[in-house]
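OP here, attaching both records as promised.
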Amino acid sequence: MPLRLQSISREQHLAFVAARASASHMQVPSWGDVKPDWRAESLGWIDEEGRLVGAGLVLFRPLPKLKKYLAYLPEGPVIDWDAPDLAERWLEPMLGYLKTRGAFSVKMGPPVVLRRWSAEAVKAAIADPAALRLRDAEATSYEPRAFDIADRLRRMGWQQTEPGGEDGFAAGQPRYVFQVPFAGRPLEDIHRGLNQQWRRNIKKAEKAGVKVVRGGYEDLSAFYDLYAETAERDRFLPRPLPYFQRMWSALNAEDPDRMRLYLAHHEGDVLSAATMITVGEHVWYSYGASTSRKREVQPNNAMQWRMMCDAHDLGAAVYDLRGITDTLQDSNHLLGLLRFKVGTGGQAVEYLGEWDFPLNRLLHKALDLYMARR
């Protein structure tokens, strides 16, 4: 029997997420406040006994000049993805509800892992001239249920999409991420899992006098100066400072320790900075920034290790370094960042990716053409 869909309060939504070990930071109510260009709604799945059994943050973006919306559930919704009646009981009621809200297309990112590669497997793939992409390398482990879920989505009419940017309609989250498993591991074991270069760099930073401190709202401008420099160096379009100020205010109003800021100082200079977000037992290294100056004192390794230690103290089951490139050629300027993350001794993780469902095929096609022209 299909579940009933309805709008729920922020309090109900937050309580549902808090009762789970993990949910994406993009599936908490406050994330809607971070995205003022989108209209946010907390959505609840209600069973026959009136219990809330699933929740999702839906972001609605209007199509130019029309009262029709792209409905987006980033890294969500938080439902029973293993349910045998996933289509009939969970997803079809969601599509029906979103259509009544004016959605012409629905985009979601099932929080379902497809496969994993150990740090050793990723290093071997980078060294292998035949491996042009991560998916060309043999995975260390597979999740058979994820392939079954993908098959069911296709049969329903969902279309898998490649991730894009995050501005406007080109909403997209990384399909490939790098994570360090913490569950059941003492900090000493996590430290031993770092590669030799990482351990050496952490010692070098300590010897050079690098100090990593937690910052506050007033330090976001120092973070932003480094972030703007990083954007120019790494060739990406930076978000404006008010975005990070809004993120800090919104997330920490919901939970005073939801978002943290870390800064690595050396002899009066701020050399690197990063934001960290926590939801339940999942901790994300969210945004990072650094200067090209004084790289020899290794501020980035020192800052990451401090964040990993603090995440462990918080009881994290996983420390998530977020997106990685899946392109392994030397010409890819993001390969250096992948090598840096591999040094943590964690694992590359491929999620099921993002999926679209056109509720109005004509408008969905028009959106595709609009994005192609942009």
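Record two, same layout:
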Amino acid sequence: MMTLPALPSLFPRLLCGLLTSLALAQAAHADITPVSAAQCARMKSSKVITAGNPVPCQRLATVSFDYNDSEGAVRRGAVVVLDAIAPEVEALFGELLLRSFPLAGAQPMEAFEGDDQRSMAANNTSAFNGRPMTGGGGWSKHAYGAAIDINPLQNPYVSQAGSPTQEVLPPAGSAYLERSPVRSGMAEDVISVFHDHGFLVWGGHWKQPIDYQHFEIGSRAFIQRLASLPRPQARAEFGRYVTAYRQCAHSGASATGGDEDEDTPEDTTLRDQCAARLKK
């Protein structure tokens, strides 16, 4: 004889499933479009991309998405990224919306004429920018569309940390150098989300400089490989990369034989170990 589940235990699961479905429907307001010739022209005229950039416009995509602002209102934003990673970026911002993680703004860099400091001063979340690394040197990972900066005010860039020549960008970010307790809009709240979508490197873990706003997918060699492959193969390779991390990071919950309790603290040790071991 079949035993029916007790209604008191069944109802919460049904309600949870319904609420999750409704939340996912809300987060579905996102789309991916290739960078058009007109958009590429705007990027060139605003110095966001040049002929020497390591990735051409043809390998870039715009991800448009809904996000919560600091007042809880839903706004529309967009970032430009390498086409191979665009589906995961779309899903990433959808999850930030589900979590009600606030973004102050999200505009492609042509809105700031490619000026990184202007974008940071506006507390703008961004991705592609055809510029060298801050402080000089080779191309930034942003020039490949393989890095995202979130809420620069709450997550500043800090050079020469702790020294008399310490510099904080944007300067107003000095109010957020104390990282505990975590405040609204700070990256520590969503490291797991970025990792879960393939951004296995967080600049907040760096010793010098410290770049709390910055997430990137991995090494320059890995990014260059994705950019060199045809888009379908590149997306497949990045998909395998993401899957390997998820299998590692979520193995702890599987080993305990069930879903993690929402009140259980996140196992950041396992998360960070998986990211360090699997990043390419």
